[in-house]
Protein backbone atom coordinates (compact mmCIF):
# COMPACT_ATOMS: atom_id res chain seq x y z
CA UNK A 1 0.00 0.00 0.00
CA UNK A 2 2.89 2.39 0.80
CA UNK A 3 4.26 2.12 -2.76
CA UNK A 4 0.81 2.82 -4.21
CA UNK A 5 0.31 5.84 -1.97
CA UNK A 6 3.76 7.20 -2.78
CA UNK A 7 3.00 6.86 -6.48
CA UNK A 8 -0.24 8.81 -6.00
CA UNK A 9 1.69 11.56 -4.18
CA UNK A 10 4.32 11.69 -6.93
CA UNK A 11 1.54 12.16 -9.47
CA UNK A 12 0.57 15.31 -7.59
CA UNK A 13 4.05 16.86 -7.66
CA UNK A 14 3.50 18.79 -10.89
CA UNK A 15 0.50 20.72 -9.59
CA UNK A 16 2.31 21.40 -6.28
CA UNK A 17 5.35 22.71 -8.15
CA UNK A 18 3.13 24.96 -10.27
CA UNK A 19 1.42 26.33 -7.11
CA UNK A 20 4.83 27.23 -5.73
CA UNK A 21 6.22 28.58 -9.02
CA UNK A 22 3.42 31.08 -9.64
CA UNK A 23 3.39 32.19 -5.99
CA UNK A 24 0.10 30.72 -4.77
CA UNK A 25 1.70 28.94 -1.80
CA UNK A 26 4.98 29.01 0.12
CA UNK A 27 7.33 26.03 0.61
CA UNK A 28 5.90 25.39 4.08
CA UNK A 29 2.34 25.47 2.80
CA UNK A 30 3.19 23.09 -0.07
CA UNK A 31 4.72 20.66 2.43
CA UNK A 32 1.59 20.87 4.56
CA UNK A 33 -0.69 20.20 1.55
CA UNK A 34 1.45 17.21 0.56
CA UNK A 35 1.41 15.83 4.11
CA UNK A 36 -2.39 16.16 4.41
CA UNK A 37 -2.91 14.43 1.09
CA UNK A 38 -0.57 11.62 2.05
CA UNK A 39 -2.54 11.11 5.28
CA UNK A 40 -5.81 10.98 3.36
CA UNK A 41 -4.40 8.58 0.77
CA UNK A 42 -3.32 6.13 3.48
CA UNK A 43 -6.77 6.30 5.08
CA UNK A 44 -8.73 5.64 1.88
CA UNK A 45 -6.50 2.71 0.91
CA UNK A 46 -6.79 0.79 4.16
CA UNK A 47 -8.16 -2.75 4.12
CA UNK A 48 -11.42 -1.53 5.66
CA UNK A 49 -12.34 1.68 3.89
CA UNK A 50 -14.52 4.21 5.66
CA UNK A 51 -16.97 6.53 3.88
CA UNK A 52 -16.13 9.40 6.23
CA UNK A 53 -12.43 9.27 5.19
CA UNK A 54 -13.38 9.72 1.53
CA UNK A 55 -15.74 12.57 2.39
CA UNK A 56 -13.11 14.34 4.47
CA UNK A 57 -10.63 14.01 1.59
CA UNK A 58 -13.19 15.44 -0.83
CA UNK A 59 -13.96 18.24 1.62
CA UNK A 60 -10.28 19.11 1.96
CA UNK A 61 -9.76 19.30 -1.80
CA UNK A 62 -12.88 21.44 -2.24
CA UNK A 63 -11.69 23.87 0.43
CA UNK A 64 -8.30 23.94 -1.31
CA UNK A 65 -9.98 24.85 -4.59
CA UNK A 66 -11.83 27.71 -2.89
CA UNK A 67 -8.60 28.92 -1.29
CA UNK A 68 -6.77 28.83 -4.62
CA UNK A 69 -9.57 30.87 -6.22
CA UNK A 70 -9.36 33.43 -3.40
CA UNK A 71 -5.58 33.74 -3.64
CA UNK A 72 -5.74 34.14 -7.42
CA UNK A 73 -8.20 37.02 -7.00
CA UNK A 74 -6.16 38.67 -4.25
CA UNK A 75 -2.84 38.39 -6.10
CA UNK A 76 -4.28 38.69 -9.63
CA UNK A 77 -2.76 35.39 -10.78
CA UNK A 78 -4.34 33.62 -13.75
CA UNK A 79 -1.59 31.21 -14.92
CA UNK A 80 -1.62 27.41 -14.91
CA UNK A 81 -5.30 26.83 -14.19
CA UNK A 82 -5.29 23.62 -16.22
CA UNK A 83 -2.29 22.28 -14.32
CA UNK A 84 -3.77 23.15 -10.93
CA UNK A 85 -7.56 23.55 -10.66
CA UNK A 86 -8.40 21.17 -13.48
CA UNK A 87 -6.12 18.49 -11.99
CA UNK A 88 -7.65 18.90 -8.52
CA UNK A 89 -11.17 18.74 -9.99
CA UNK A 90 -10.30 15.49 -11.76
CA UNK A 91 -9.02 14.05 -8.47
CA UNK A 92 -12.22 15.02 -6.65
CA UNK A 93 -14.37 13.51 -9.42
CA UNK A 94 -12.33 10.31 -9.17
CA UNK A 95 -12.89 10.23 -5.40
CA UNK A 96 -16.64 10.72 -5.93
CA UNK A 97 -16.70 7.88 -8.47
CA UNK A 98 -15.05 5.56 -5.96
CA UNK A 99 -17.50 6.70 -3.29
CA UNK A 100 -20.45 5.95 -5.55
CA UNK A 101 -19.04 2.53 -6.41
CA UNK A 102 -18.54 1.61 -2.77
CA UNK A 103 -21.59 3.32 -1.28
CA UNK A 104 -24.19 3.49 -4.07
CA UNK A 105 -27.20 3.56 -1.69
CA UNK A 106 -26.18 6.87 -0.14
CA UNK A 107 -28.20 9.40 -2.18
CA UNK A 108 -26.48 12.34 -0.47
CA UNK A 109 -23.18 11.33 -2.12
CA UNK A 110 -24.84 11.39 -5.54
CA UNK A 111 -26.30 14.83 -4.88
CA UNK A 112 -22.93 16.18 -3.71
CA UNK A 113 -21.28 14.69 -6.80
CA UNK A 114 -23.78 16.49 -9.06
CA UNK A 115 -23.33 19.75 -7.19
CA UNK A 116 -19.53 19.56 -7.44
CA UNK A 117 -19.55 18.80 -11.17
CA UNK A 118 -21.89 21.72 -11.71
CA UNK A 119 -19.62 24.04 -9.69
CA UNK A 120 -16.53 23.14 -11.78
CA UNK A 121 -18.56 23.18 -15.03
CA UNK A 122 -17.90 19.51 -15.76
CA UNK A 123 -21.52 18.51 -16.34
CA UNK A 124 -20.78 15.83 -18.94
CA UNK A 125 -19.42 13.50 -16.25
CA UNK A 126 -22.85 13.28 -14.56
CA UNK A 127 -24.70 12.40 -17.76
CA UNK A 128 -22.89 9.07 -17.86
CA UNK A 129 -24.02 8.27 -14.31
CA UNK A 130 -27.71 9.25 -14.50
CA UNK A 131 -28.78 5.82 -15.74
CA UNK A 132 -27.08 4.16 -12.77
CA UNK A 133 -28.55 6.74 -10.39
CA UNK A 134 -32.10 6.06 -11.56
CA UNK A 135 -31.55 2.30 -11.43
CA UNK A 136 -30.46 2.41 -7.78
CA UNK A 137 -32.73 5.21 -6.52
CA UNK A 138 -35.61 4.99 -8.99
CA UNK A 139 -38.05 4.44 -6.12
CA UNK A 140 -37.80 8.17 -5.42
CA UNK A 141 -39.66 10.58 -7.70
CA UNK A 142 -37.17 13.30 -6.78
CA UNK A 143 -34.35 11.33 -8.43
CA UNK A 144 -36.15 11.11 -11.77
CA UNK A 145 -36.83 14.84 -11.58
CA UNK A 146 -33.14 15.51 -10.86
CA UNK A 147 -32.07 13.36 -13.80
CA UNK A 148 -34.55 15.01 -16.14
CA UNK A 149 -33.69 18.52 -15.08
CA UNK A 150 -29.97 17.81 -15.34
CA UNK A 151 -30.43 16.85 -18.97
CA UNK A 152 -32.67 19.70 -20.06
CA UNK A 153 -31.24 22.47 -17.85
CA UNK A 154 -27.52 21.64 -17.64
CA UNK A 155 -27.06 19.73 -20.89
CA UNK A 156 -29.71 21.58 -22.93
CA UNK A 157 -31.16 18.26 -24.06
CA UNK A 158 -34.95 18.42 -23.93
CA UNK A 159 -35.29 14.97 -25.51
CA UNK A 160 -33.12 13.26 -22.88
CA UNK A 161 -34.81 15.22 -20.12
CA UNK A 162 -38.25 14.19 -21.37
CA UNK A 163 -37.14 10.54 -21.48
CA UNK A 164 -36.13 10.52 -17.82
CA UNK A 165 -39.25 12.40 -16.72
CA UNK A 166 -41.55 10.02 -18.61
CA UNK A 167 -39.78 6.98 -17.13
CA UNK A 168 -40.23 8.56 -13.72
CA UNK A 169 -43.96 9.07 -14.31
CA UNK A 170 -44.30 5.38 -15.19
CA UNK A 171 -43.10 4.55 -11.64
CA UNK A 172 -44.58 7.56 -9.86
CA UNK A 173 -47.78 8.33 -11.70
CA UNK A 174 -49.08 10.56 -8.88
CA UNK A 175 -46.01 12.81 -8.68
CA UNK A 176 -47.00 16.44 -9.21
CA UNK A 177 -43.41 17.54 -9.83
CA UNK A 178 -42.83 15.04 -12.63
CA UNK A 179 -46.07 15.92 -14.44
CA UNK A 180 -45.26 19.63 -14.10
CA UNK A 181 -41.75 19.13 -15.50
CA UNK A 182 -43.08 17.07 -18.41
CA UNK A 183 -45.56 19.82 -19.30
CA UNK A 184 -42.80 22.42 -19.14
CA UNK A 185 -40.54 20.35 -21.42
CA UNK A 186 -43.32 19.79 -23.95
CA UNK A 187 -44.08 23.52 -24.04
CA UNK A 188 -40.39 24.39 -24.46
CA UNK A 189 -40.16 21.94 -27.35
CA UNK A 190 -43.30 23.43 -28.92
CA UNK A 191 -41.83 26.92 -28.64
CA UNK A 192 -38.96 25.96 -30.94
CA UNK A 193 -41.15 24.24 -33.57
CA UNK A 194 -42.40 25.46 -36.91
CA UNK A 195 -46.10 26.21 -37.31
CA UNK A 196 -46.74 22.90 -39.09
CA UNK A 197 -45.13 20.81 -36.37
CA UNK A 198 -46.78 22.88 -33.63
CA UNK A 199 -50.23 21.43 -34.36
CA UNK A 200 -49.03 17.89 -33.63
CA UNK A 201 -47.11 19.02 -30.57
CA UNK A 202 -50.14 20.83 -29.13
CA UNK A 203 -52.13 17.60 -29.46
CA UNK A 204 -49.38 15.88 -27.50
CA UNK A 205 -49.46 18.62 -24.86
CA UNK A 206 -53.22 18.18 -24.45
CA UNK A 207 -52.68 14.45 -23.90
CA UNK A 208 -49.99 15.22 -21.31
CA UNK A 209 -52.40 17.54 -19.49
CA UNK A 210 -55.27 15.04 -19.61
CA UNK A 211 -53.09 12.23 -18.27
CA UNK A 212 -51.74 14.44 -15.49
CA UNK A 213 -55.20 15.59 -14.39
CA UNK A 214 -56.44 12.02 -14.42
CA UNK A 215 -53.77 10.96 -11.92
CA UNK A 216 -53.31 14.09 -9.80
CA UNK A 217 -56.37 15.97 -8.61
CA UNK A 218 -55.77 19.03 -6.44
CA UNK A 219 -56.20 22.77 -6.75
CA UNK A 220 -52.48 23.35 -6.14
CA UNK A 221 -51.61 21.12 -9.09
CA UNK A 222 -54.02 22.90 -11.44
CA UNK A 223 -52.62 26.27 -10.33
CA UNK A 224 -49.05 25.12 -11.00
CA UNK A 225 -50.03 23.98 -14.49
CA UNK A 226 -51.86 27.24 -15.21
CA UNK A 227 -48.79 29.18 -14.04
CA UNK A 228 -46.55 27.35 -16.48
CA UNK A 229 -48.92 27.63 -19.44
CA UNK A 230 -49.36 31.37 -18.81
CA UNK A 231 -45.73 31.86 -19.89
CA UNK A 232 -46.41 30.49 -23.39
CA UNK A 233 -48.62 32.75 -25.50
CA UNK A 234 -49.26 30.08 -28.17
CA UNK A 235 -50.89 27.66 -25.69
CA UNK A 236 -54.30 29.39 -25.75
CA UNK A 237 -56.40 26.23 -25.98
CA UNK A 238 -54.52 24.51 -23.16
CA UNK A 239 -54.83 27.61 -21.01
CA UNK A 240 -58.58 27.80 -21.60
CA UNK A 241 -58.96 24.10 -20.76
CA UNK A 242 -57.03 24.42 -17.49
CA UNK A 243 -58.83 27.55 -16.33
CA UNK A 244 -62.20 26.00 -17.19
CA UNK A 245 -61.36 22.97 -15.06
CA UNK A 246 -60.14 25.28 -12.30
CA UNK A 247 -63.49 27.10 -12.23
CA UNK A 248 -65.69 24.07 -12.64
CA UNK A 249 -64.01 21.95 -9.97
CA UNK A 250 -62.51 24.46 -7.55
CA UNK A 251 -64.73 27.57 -7.61
CA UNK A 252 -65.29 27.06 -3.87
CA UNK A 253 -61.57 27.01 -3.07
CA UNK A 254 -59.98 30.23 -1.80
CA UNK A 255 -56.60 29.35 -3.33
CA UNK A 256 -58.18 29.24 -6.80
CA UNK A 257 -59.58 32.75 -6.33
CA UNK A 258 -56.26 33.97 -4.96
CA UNK A 259 -54.49 32.68 -8.06
CA UNK A 260 -57.00 34.37 -10.38
CA UNK A 261 -56.53 37.67 -8.53
CA UNK A 262 -52.78 37.35 -8.97
CA UNK A 263 -53.24 36.69 -12.69
CA UNK A 264 -55.41 39.79 -13.02
CA UNK A 265 -52.79 41.89 -11.25
CA UNK A 266 -50.10 40.64 -13.62
CA UNK A 267 -52.40 41.09 -16.66
CA UNK A 268 -52.29 37.35 -17.34
CA UNK A 269 -54.98 35.66 -19.42
CA UNK A 270 -57.48 33.81 -17.21
CA UNK A 271 -58.91 31.67 -20.00
CA UNK A 272 -61.67 34.09 -20.96
CA UNK A 273 -63.73 33.43 -17.83
CA UNK A 274 -65.96 36.34 -16.78
CA UNK A 275 -65.59 36.19 -12.99
CA UNK A 276 -66.97 39.75 -12.73
CA UNK A 277 -70.45 38.42 -13.55
CA UNK A 278 -70.44 36.71 -10.16
CA UNK A 279 -70.21 40.01 -8.31
CA UNK A 280 -73.23 42.31 -8.53
CA UNK A 281 -71.49 44.95 -6.36
CA UNK A 282 -68.25 45.22 -8.29
CA UNK A 283 -65.75 47.75 -7.01
CA UNK A 284 -65.03 50.67 -9.33
CA UNK A 285 -62.39 53.31 -8.76
CA UNK A 286 -59.69 55.45 -10.26
CA UNK A 287 -57.28 52.53 -9.81
CA UNK A 288 -55.47 51.03 -12.83
CA UNK A 289 -57.69 48.35 -14.41
CA UNK A 290 -55.49 45.43 -13.32
CA UNK A 291 -55.47 46.57 -9.68
CA UNK A 292 -59.22 47.17 -9.76
CA UNK A 293 -59.71 43.64 -11.08
CA UNK A 294 -57.38 42.31 -8.37
CA UNK A 295 -59.53 43.93 -5.67
CA UNK A 296 -62.78 42.74 -7.27
CA UNK A 297 -61.63 39.14 -7.55
CA UNK A 298 -60.61 39.01 -3.90
CA UNK A 299 -63.83 40.64 -2.69
CA UNK A 300 -65.90 38.35 -4.90
CA UNK A 301 -63.99 35.40 -3.44
CA UNK A 302 -64.85 36.52 0.09
CA UNK A 303 -68.53 36.80 -0.79
CA UNK A 304 -68.58 33.37 -2.48
CA UNK A 305 -66.13 31.58 -0.15
CA UNK A 306 -66.48 33.46 3.18
CA UNK A 307 -63.61 31.79 5.02
CA UNK A 308 -60.71 33.11 7.08
CA UNK A 309 -58.33 31.87 4.37
CA UNK A 310 -60.07 33.98 1.69
CA UNK A 311 -59.67 37.09 3.82
CA UNK A 312 -56.03 36.38 4.69
CA UNK A 313 -55.23 35.68 1.03
CA UNK A 314 -56.63 39.13 0.22
CA UNK A 315 -54.65 40.85 2.96
CA UNK A 316 -51.38 39.02 2.27
CA UNK A 317 -51.63 39.73 -1.45
CA UNK A 318 -52.34 43.40 -0.72
CA UNK A 319 -49.30 43.60 1.60
CA UNK A 320 -47.10 42.24 -1.21
CA UNK A 321 -48.10 45.27 -3.29
CA UNK A 322 -45.56 47.30 -1.32
CA UNK A 323 -42.81 45.80 -3.48
CA UNK A 324 -44.76 46.55 -6.69
CA UNK A 325 -43.31 49.56 -8.51
CA UNK A 326 -46.21 49.80 -10.97
CA UNK A 327 -48.49 51.69 -8.57
CA UNK A 328 -48.05 54.80 -6.45
CA UNK A 329 -47.65 54.49 -2.69
CA UNK A 330 -51.01 56.15 -1.96
CA UNK A 331 -52.79 53.63 -4.20
CA UNK A 332 -51.01 50.71 -2.57
CA UNK A 333 -51.81 51.97 0.93
CA UNK A 334 -55.47 52.46 0.01
CA UNK A 335 -55.66 48.91 -1.35
CA UNK A 336 -54.08 47.46 1.79
CA UNK A 337 -56.39 49.54 3.96
CA UNK A 338 -59.40 48.22 2.04
CA UNK A 339 -58.23 44.62 2.51
CA UNK A 340 -57.66 45.08 6.25
CA UNK A 341 -61.06 46.76 6.59
CA UNK A 342 -62.70 43.73 4.99
CA UNK A 343 -61.00 41.37 7.45
CA UNK A 344 -61.84 43.65 10.36
CA UNK A 345 -65.52 43.86 9.40
CA UNK A 346 -65.71 40.07 9.24
CA UNK A 347 -63.87 39.77 12.59
CA UNK A 348 -61.15 37.61 11.06
CA UNK A 349 -58.00 39.63 11.85
CA UNK A 350 -55.56 38.44 14.50
CA UNK A 351 -53.29 40.61 16.63
CA UNK A 352 -50.41 40.50 14.14
CA UNK A 353 -52.59 41.80 11.33
CA UNK A 354 -53.91 44.60 13.54
CA UNK A 355 -50.31 45.64 14.20
CA UNK A 356 -49.62 45.83 10.46
CA UNK A 357 -52.86 47.69 9.80
CA UNK A 358 -52.21 50.21 12.56
CA UNK A 359 -48.80 50.98 11.03
CA UNK A 360 -50.53 51.70 7.71
CA UNK A 361 -53.22 53.86 9.33
CA UNK A 362 -50.65 55.88 11.28
CA UNK A 363 -48.55 56.47 8.16
CA UNK A 364 -51.60 57.75 6.27
CA UNK A 365 -52.11 61.43 7.05
CA UNK A 366 -55.69 61.24 5.73
CA UNK A 367 -56.83 58.76 8.39
CA UNK A 368 -58.22 60.64 11.36
CA UNK A 369 -57.70 59.90 15.04
CA UNK A 370 -61.37 59.12 15.58
CA UNK A 371 -61.36 56.46 12.88
CA UNK A 372 -58.34 54.75 14.45
CA UNK A 373 -60.04 54.86 17.86
CA UNK A 374 -63.18 53.27 16.44
CA UNK A 375 -61.15 50.52 14.80
CA UNK A 376 -59.25 49.82 18.04
CA UNK A 377 -62.49 49.76 20.04
CA UNK A 378 -64.01 47.21 17.67
CA UNK A 379 -60.74 45.25 17.65
CA UNK A 380 -60.94 44.96 21.45
CA UNK A 381 -64.36 43.39 21.02
CA UNK A 382 -63.00 41.00 18.39
CA UNK A 383 -59.87 40.04 20.40
CA UNK A 384 -60.60 41.06 24.01
CA UNK A 385 -57.50 39.34 25.41
CA UNK A 386 -55.04 41.26 23.20
CA UNK A 387 -52.59 43.24 25.33
CA UNK A 388 -51.34 45.10 22.24
CA UNK A 389 -54.76 46.43 21.17
CA UNK A 390 -55.66 47.63 24.67
CA UNK A 391 -52.28 49.32 24.95
CA UNK A 392 -52.82 51.17 21.67
CA UNK A 393 -56.19 52.37 22.96
CA UNK A 394 -54.61 53.54 26.22
CA UNK A 395 -51.94 55.47 24.32
CA UNK A 396 -54.69 57.53 22.70
CA UNK A 397 -56.23 58.52 26.05
CA UNK A 398 -53.22 60.49 27.27
CA UNK A 399 -55.06 63.81 27.32
CA UNK A 400 -57.81 62.51 29.58
CA UNK A 401 -56.62 60.77 32.76
CA UNK A 402 -60.14 59.76 33.83
CA UNK A 403 -60.89 58.08 30.48
CA UNK A 404 -57.57 56.27 30.64
CA UNK A 405 -58.29 54.86 34.10
CA UNK A 406 -61.77 53.67 33.04
CA UNK A 407 -60.26 52.00 29.98
CA UNK A 408 -57.45 50.49 32.08
CA UNK A 409 -60.01 48.94 34.41
CA UNK A 410 -61.75 47.31 31.43
CA UNK A 411 -58.42 46.10 30.07
CA UNK A 412 -57.46 44.41 33.35
CA UNK A 413 -60.70 42.44 33.27
CA UNK A 414 -60.19 41.34 29.65
CA UNK A 415 -56.46 40.62 29.46
CA UNK A 416 -54.97 37.67 31.38
CA UNK A 417 -53.09 38.83 34.49
CA UNK A 418 -49.76 37.45 33.29
CA UNK A 419 -49.98 39.64 30.15
CA UNK A 420 -50.87 43.06 31.59
CA UNK A 421 -47.34 44.23 32.48
CA UNK A 422 -47.06 46.67 29.57
CA UNK A 423 -50.51 48.14 30.40
CA UNK A 424 -49.47 48.80 34.01
CA UNK A 425 -46.19 50.29 32.85
CA UNK A 426 -47.86 52.66 30.39
CA UNK A 427 -50.56 53.84 32.80
CA UNK A 428 -48.08 54.43 35.66
CA UNK A 429 -45.54 56.31 33.53
CA UNK A 430 -48.31 58.40 31.92
CA UNK A 431 -49.99 59.38 35.20
CA UNK A 432 -48.88 62.57 36.97
CA UNK A 433 -51.60 62.77 39.61
CA UNK A 434 -50.42 61.40 43.00
CA UNK A 435 -53.93 60.46 44.11
CA UNK A 436 -54.37 58.33 41.01
CA UNK A 437 -50.93 56.78 41.50
CA UNK A 438 -51.81 55.83 45.08
CA UNK A 439 -55.02 54.20 43.86
CA UNK A 440 -52.96 52.24 41.38
CA UNK A 441 -50.70 51.15 44.22
CA UNK A 442 -53.66 49.87 46.23
CA UNK A 443 -54.79 47.85 43.21
CA UNK A 444 -51.27 46.51 42.62
CA UNK A 445 -51.21 44.89 46.09
CA UNK A 446 -53.38 42.11 44.65
CA UNK A 447 -50.90 41.30 41.87
CA UNK A 448 -48.79 38.11 41.90
CA UNK A 449 -45.11 38.55 42.90
CA UNK A 450 -43.80 38.38 39.34
CA UNK A 451 -46.04 41.24 38.25
CA UNK A 452 -45.40 43.20 41.46
CA UNK A 453 -41.67 43.12 40.74
CA UNK A 454 -42.40 45.30 37.71
CA UNK A 455 -45.20 47.49 39.04
CA UNK A 456 -43.83 48.48 42.48
CA UNK A 457 -40.54 49.98 41.20
CA UNK A 458 -42.43 51.87 38.47
CA UNK A 459 -44.78 53.40 41.03
CA UNK A 460 -41.87 54.40 43.24
CA UNK A 461 -40.11 56.12 40.33
CA UNK A 462 -43.32 57.97 39.44
CA UNK A 463 -43.69 59.14 43.05
CA UNK A 464 -40.16 60.52 42.88
CA UNK A 465 -40.60 62.17 39.47
CA UNK A 466 -43.91 63.82 40.38
CA UNK A 467 -43.52 64.64 44.11
CA UNK A 468 -39.82 64.57 44.90
CA UNK A 469 -37.42 62.59 47.08
CA UNK A 470 -39.13 63.11 50.45
CA UNK A 471 -42.45 61.75 49.25
CA UNK A 472 -40.68 58.83 47.52
CA UNK A 473 -38.83 57.96 50.76
CA UNK A 474 -42.04 58.06 52.76
CA UNK A 475 -43.90 55.82 50.31
CA UNK A 476 -40.94 53.49 49.98
CA UNK A 477 -41.01 52.69 53.69
CA UNK A 478 -44.66 51.72 53.39
CA UNK A 479 -44.27 49.79 50.13
CA UNK A 480 -41.18 47.93 51.36
CA UNK A 481 -43.03 46.27 54.26
CA UNK A 482 -46.15 45.43 52.22
CA UNK A 483 -46.36 42.02 50.60
CA UNK A 484 -45.47 40.77 48.13
CA UNK A 485 -41.84 41.67 48.87
CA UNK A 486 -39.80 42.39 45.73
CA UNK A 487 -36.05 43.03 45.55
CA UNK A 488 -36.57 45.32 42.54
CA UNK A 489 -38.28 47.88 44.81
CA UNK A 490 -35.18 48.20 47.02
CA UNK A 491 -32.91 48.39 43.98
CA UNK A 492 -35.07 51.18 42.50
CA UNK A 493 -34.91 53.21 45.74
CA UNK A 494 -31.15 52.75 45.95
CA UNK A 495 -30.78 54.10 42.41
CA UNK A 496 -33.03 57.06 43.27
CA UNK A 497 -30.92 57.84 46.37
CA UNK A 498 -27.68 57.57 44.42
CA UNK A 499 -28.97 60.08 41.85
CA UNK A 500 -29.28 62.80 44.49
CA UNK A 501 -26.70 65.57 44.29
CA UNK A 502 -25.43 64.52 47.71
CA UNK A 503 -26.41 60.88 48.37
CA UNK A 504 -27.66 60.36 51.92
CA UNK A 505 -25.81 57.45 53.52
CA UNK A 506 -28.45 57.04 56.23
CA UNK A 507 -31.28 56.51 53.72
CA UNK A 508 -29.15 54.28 51.51
CA UNK A 509 -28.23 52.12 54.51
CA UNK A 510 -31.93 51.76 55.31
CA UNK A 511 -32.57 50.43 51.78
CA UNK A 512 -29.75 47.92 52.02
CA UNK A 513 -30.85 46.71 55.45
CA UNK A 514 -34.49 46.28 54.42
CA UNK A 515 -33.33 44.24 51.40
CA UNK A 516 -31.20 42.09 53.72
CA UNK A 517 -34.09 41.54 56.14
CA UNK A 518 -36.39 40.30 53.35
CA UNK A 519 -33.97 38.47 51.05
CA UNK A 520 -30.87 37.85 53.18
CA UNK A 521 -31.49 34.14 53.66
CA UNK A 522 -31.17 33.23 49.97
CA UNK A 523 -29.71 36.16 48.04
CA UNK A 524 -25.93 36.45 48.33
CA UNK A 525 -25.83 39.67 46.29
CA UNK A 526 -27.87 41.76 48.78
CA UNK A 527 -25.10 41.23 51.35
CA UNK A 528 -22.31 41.93 48.87
CA UNK A 529 -23.93 45.16 47.66
CA UNK A 530 -24.20 46.31 51.28
CA UNK A 531 -20.52 45.46 51.90
CA UNK A 532 -19.49 47.52 48.84
CA UNK A 533 -21.68 50.39 50.01
CA UNK A 534 -20.04 50.49 53.47
CA UNK A 535 -16.56 50.44 51.94
CA UNK A 536 -17.40 53.27 49.52
CA UNK A 537 -19.11 55.22 52.32
CA UNK A 538 -15.86 55.11 54.33
CA UNK A 539 -16.91 52.49 56.89
CA UNK A 540 -14.87 49.38 56.06
CA UNK A 541 -14.96 48.38 59.72
CA UNK A 542 -18.64 47.50 59.28
CA UNK A 543 -17.78 44.73 56.83
CA UNK A 544 -16.71 42.28 59.51
CA UNK A 545 -20.09 42.45 61.24
CA UNK A 546 -21.88 42.12 57.90
CA UNK A 547 -19.78 39.05 57.11
CA UNK A 548 -20.72 37.39 60.40
CA UNK A 549 -24.42 38.23 59.98
CA UNK A 550 -24.41 36.88 56.44
CA UNK A 551 -22.80 33.58 57.41
CA UNK A 552 -25.42 33.21 60.18
CA UNK A 553 -28.47 34.16 58.11
CA UNK A 554 -27.75 32.67 54.67
CA UNK A 555 -28.86 29.17 53.86
CA UNK A 556 -26.08 26.62 54.23
CA UNK A 557 -26.21 25.87 50.50
CA UNK A 558 -25.01 29.39 49.53
CA UNK A 559 -22.65 30.29 52.40
CA UNK A 560 -19.56 29.02 50.53
CA UNK A 561 -20.54 31.09 47.47
CA UNK A 562 -20.88 34.18 49.66
CA UNK A 563 -17.48 33.63 51.29
CA UNK A 564 -15.79 33.32 47.92
CA UNK A 565 -17.47 36.42 46.47
CA UNK A 566 -16.90 38.39 49.69
CA UNK A 567 -13.15 37.83 49.34
CA UNK A 568 -13.29 39.09 45.74
CA UNK A 569 -15.13 42.26 46.84
CA UNK A 570 -12.65 42.98 49.64
CA UNK A 571 -9.64 42.43 47.38
CA UNK A 572 -11.17 44.56 44.63
CA UNK A 573 -11.80 47.48 46.99
Overview of the molecule:
The chain has helices spanning 2-11, 13-21, 27-44, 51-75, 82-102, 107-119, 124-127, 130-137, 141-154, 158-171, 176-191, 195-215, 219-229, 236-250, 254-265, 289-304, 308-319, 329-345, 351-363, 369-382, 387-395, 401-414, 421-430, 434-444, 449-480, 487-498, 505-519, 524-536, 542-553, 556-572. The model has no long low-confidence stretch (mean pLDDT 89). It is mainly alpha-helical and 573 residues long. Among the domains are: 1-122, no CATH class; 520-573, no CATH class.
Largest sheet entry: none
Radius of gyration: 37 Å
Beta-strand fraction estimate: under 5%
> What's the SSE pattern?
HHHHHHHHHHHHHHHHHHHHHHHHHHHHHH
Number of helices: 30
| Distance between the first and last residues' Cα | 68 Å
Give the number of DSSP strands: 0
Class of secondary structure makeup: mainly alpha
Amino acid sequence: MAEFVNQRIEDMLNELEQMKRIGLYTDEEIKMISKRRKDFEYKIHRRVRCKEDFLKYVGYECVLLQNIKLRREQNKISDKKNDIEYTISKRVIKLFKELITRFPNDLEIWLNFMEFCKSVQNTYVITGYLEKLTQIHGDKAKVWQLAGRWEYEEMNSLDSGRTYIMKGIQRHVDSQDLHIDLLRIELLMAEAMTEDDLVTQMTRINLVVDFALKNVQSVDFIIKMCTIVNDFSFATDVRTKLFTILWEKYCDDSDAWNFIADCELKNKDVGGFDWLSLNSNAFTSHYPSNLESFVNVHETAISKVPTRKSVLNYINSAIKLIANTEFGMATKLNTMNRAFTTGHTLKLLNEQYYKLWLDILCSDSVTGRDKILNILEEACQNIPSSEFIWLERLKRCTNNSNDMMILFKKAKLAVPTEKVASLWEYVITSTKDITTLKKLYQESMMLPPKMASTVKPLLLKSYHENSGIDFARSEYKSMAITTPFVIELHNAMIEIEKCEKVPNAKHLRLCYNLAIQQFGSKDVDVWLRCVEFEIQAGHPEACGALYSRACSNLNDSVVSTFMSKYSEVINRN
